[in-house]
Amino acid sequence: MVNEVLDKEQPGADTEGMKSLRSALRVLMAFCEEQQDFGVGELAEQCKLSKSQVSKVLSTFAEFGLLTQHPDSRRYQVAARLYALGSRYLNFDTLCRGAMPVMRDLVETTGHSARLSVLDGDRVLYLLGIEGPLFMDTGWRAGTWLPVHSTSSGRVLLATMDPERAQRLRPKQLPVFTDRSITDLDQIDRLIEQARVQGYSIQRGETTPGLGVISAPVYGRGGQPLGTLGLAFPSHVVPPSEEPQLIRALHGACRVLSQRVGCTVYPHGHAAAS
Predict the structure, then answer these.
(1) How far apart are CA 18 and CA 4, in angstroms?
(2) pLDDT digits over 56-65, tens only?
(3) Is the dihedral of CA 32, 112, 84, 226 positive or negative?
(4) pTM of the entire structure?
(5) Fewer CB within 10 Å, N- or C-terminus of the chain?
């Protein structure tokens, strides 16, 4: 997805210097994917560049401490300095800074794991997570992109965005993660409309066997949708009869976070209804 953006033609970006920069960024962005390390050959094939060009780019990034090369395998992986660079986003972004204490309170109140997600391009980016005592290792980590139509957070984001933009993001087909994954787009449309009306979305076992997730929207100034907060839990420990109390707690947390980032009136939950 990131390399698709870099592959697009950019006005005024046809100088040799800009071409070299875009090629270097294409290599660097490959490290955003869920893979620990890369060799020169596979990066050259993936980025459609020559091995010599990729080797020079990787050496330069290693020189500046953004990547590191294993002395035995000679493969490259993300270095601490690149993590430090990315952490500046979490440290200074208003939504992330406001979310941390709210998420900690939500975990203490419910006993379940809390997640903050946003829309990045055409996928959901899982930004932050605080694990609860019933932590379930799903394989999804903070910094992971998720399909927007296949997740509760994505469906909430689709429900709160401009309908024309949501329509542009509509895929031709949906991925299958488990035997409970929904692949019918008309059914997904109904779930998105339900999320629009209710102010939350629930999914159980669609992306990870045994995992339940409830997500609700976070708004900023002028009611602009910014992202979602979610509660993740082992599905078998939360019967449907307990969902309403989790939804109330989640809406309360989203209301607090929304107010912290500039939203004057949160439109969902009991306080909105009253």
Answers:
(1) 17
(2) 999 999 999 9
(3) positive
(4) 0.83
(5) C
